[in-house]
Specification:
Number of domains: 2
Largest sheet: 7 strands, mixed
CATH superfamily of the largest domain: Vaccinia Virus protein VP39
Distance between the termini: 39 Å
Strand order of the largest sheet: 3-2-1-4-5-11-10
Mean pLDDT: 92
Shape: globular
Number of helices: 6
Strand content: 25-35%
Helix content: 10-25%
Low-confidence stretches: none
CATH architecture of the largest domain: 3-Layer(aba) Sandwich
CATH topology of the largest domain: Rossmann fold
């Protein structure tokens, strides 16, 4: 590890947990308030094509502030571990608080599940990832699909992975910068995401810097995980343009992949 990499890692370790941008539910919601229509049509279209047409009950783990829940059919239910996110989302949607690595709902009670913007990588151990997949499998009816989006890169490079954008709602403007520190640990497969927010709220300015650990996945890592868990078959894969007419092999995608995983009729565990 180079001196620069060691410095970045030390910086991340010092700041992890000090500030959590997920505690800022309003500003998170503003920053992520792009039009959800494309995602909605993709998810419902994937369910119709590979799973259950016109799903009546939809589950969103890691629902955050409820951005996607608000545009889904009324029977959509979400959950998140962060109390601020649950309180915010509950203003307009049906949500509950739970750990995505281990949760329980009535078995077979959902027709579709979705998790689109890389939240799955917050589960930083194999045990947590397996627990999540098993919990989702239990929640879904056989034949239902789980639409799962995550970054498949082998690690976010500090000099190429940064994204900058800003959004405005009324008197609130949030500019965000999200990227990696380039500090992947090959043993734990953990890297650090840095989020920088520049907030202007009714004339007052505030800046936030937050560091979050994320687990790194290659295409092979994901295939191994699904094989070990055993409840799903990967029926299609796409990049984040959400074009149902343009499927891609998982190992051809460098960046954001969107997988359609179908709950098997029988577990093969």
């Amino acid at each position: 590890m180079s001196r620069i990499e060691r410095s970045r890692k030390a910086e991340a370790e010092a700041k992890l947990g000090a500030i959590n941008w997920y505690d800022e539910a309003l500003y998170y919601d503003v920053l992520c308030s792009w039009d959800p229509g494309t995602e909605r049509e993709f998810v419902l279209g994937a369910s119709e094509r590979w799973g259950i047409a016109q799903p009546q009950r939809i589950l969103e783990p890691f629902c955050g502030s409820g951005r996607l829940l608000r545009c889904m059919p009324e029977t959509a239910i979400g959950f998140d571990l962060n109390p601020a996110m649950v309180r915010y989302a509950a203003q307009q949607s049906l949500v509950f608080r739970a750990d995505a690595g281990r949760f329980a709902v009535r078995a077979g009670s959902f027709d579709l599940a979705l998790c689109l913007i890389d939240s799955f990588r917050h589960l930083t151990t194999q045990q947590a990832a397996l627990g999540h997949m098993r919990s989702i499998a239990s929640a879904l009816r056989p034949g239902a699909v789980y639409v799962l989006g995550l970054d498949v890169t082998g690690g976010m490079q500090a000099d190429t992975s940064t994204e900058d954008w800003e959004m405005t709602r009324g008197d609130v403007r949030v500019a965000g910068r999200v990227g990696g520190l380039g500090d992947v640990d090959p043993n734990t497969r953990i890297e650090t995401m840095r989020v920088q927010l520049d907030i202007r709220d009714r004339g007052k300015r505030r800046k936030i810097e937050s560091f979050q650990p994320l687990r790194v996945y290659s295409a092979q890592d994901l295939q191994d995980l699904f094989r070990e868990e055993g409840s799903f078959e990967a029926v299609a894969c796409f990049d984040r343009r959400y074009n149902l007419e343009d499927p891609r092999p998982l190992d051809s995608i460098r960046g954001s992949a969107v997988l359609v995983l179908r709950r098997k009729q029988r577990d093969c565990r």
